Amino acid sequence: MTHHSPTLIALLHGADQPGLVARVSGWIFEKGGNILHADQHRDMEAGIFFQRVEWVPADKSPMPLAGAAEEFARFAVSLGMQARVLSSAQRKRIALFVSKADHCFHDLILRWKAGDLAADIVAVISNHPDLAEAAQGYGIPFHHIPVTAESKSQSEMRQLAILRDHAAELVVLARYMQVLTPGFLDQFGKPVINIHHSFLPAFAGGRPYHQAYLRGVKLIGATAHYATRDLDEGPIIHQDVVRVTHRHDVDDLVRLGRDLERLVLAQAVRWHLNGRVLAYGNKTVVFD
Are 57 and 33 in contact (CB under 8 A)? Predict the structure, then answer.
């Protein structure tokens, strides 16, 4: 976000009813706010109204910002809407989970260092020691927590304790090759974004590029989604594909796949941080 004044972003959804857009903009206007962007969507099937509205509040100091966010959330409830309100002045704290693959790890950190992410990467947690030196080189605390079938619950307790210590508000699974249990997700209670190395739901599971090669596919893809209790079935934030031909071997597919994974994950994280993704049920509305 390049605005010099901090902005508030509200994501609303609820039963569709007449006059919602007018009432929301009216409330912001009455409070002396200035709307920069407003976008809405109606799910005709379900009769649900979605809106993203971003505005500069009258009072730009941090305490009133927090107060305005709470006040707007209360106003939304009076309309029968659920609202999440974000302030661009508050940078989210991200923890990266990694294993051995380092392409998404480096990509996200370099984007952060370049000022592309409205957030801070505060910790790296890994089930392997391989990326410890790289994380230290970037000046990010690295925590090696081995995970085995027997130690999984203790490992998750340690991970949760580290996330609490770092006050992490978002976990990004940057090619972390372990399944997070429903218990972990419930206790963390905040969003987890995963990058999946295929165009879901096709080629779920291991070695997707080998599966794709054997099938002679003409497109390979990558999918970024919120991690939920159902592995690889959480709401999809972003997907992309690249064309391939019979001339590409498995190594080519892996290399093309890595590039796609970097781009798809970075875009999903950026959209999440900029308050563009509203998850409901098992779907997302991504506001442009």
Answer: yes
Four-point Cα dihedral 199, 205, 210, 211, nearest 10: -70
Please tell me the distance from the alpha carbon of residue 175 to that of residue 284, in angstroms, as a whole number: 22
pLDDT tens by residue, 171-208: 999 999 999 999 999 999 999 999 987 765 576 677 87
DSSP SS3 for 140 = coil
Which one, of 74, 17, 72, lies nearest residue 48 by Cα?
A: 17
Single out the residue of 89, 92, 91, 93 nearest to residue 66, CA to CA: 89
130 a catalytic residue: no
Domains of the chain from N-terminus onward: 8-87 (3.30.70.260), 92-286 (3.40.50.170)
Q: Which of 116, 232, 252, 259 is catalytic?
A: 232
Q: What is the pLDDT of residues 220-265, one digit of tens each?
A: 889 999 999 887 789 999 999 999 999 999 999 889 999 999 999 9
Beta bridge partners of 144: 126
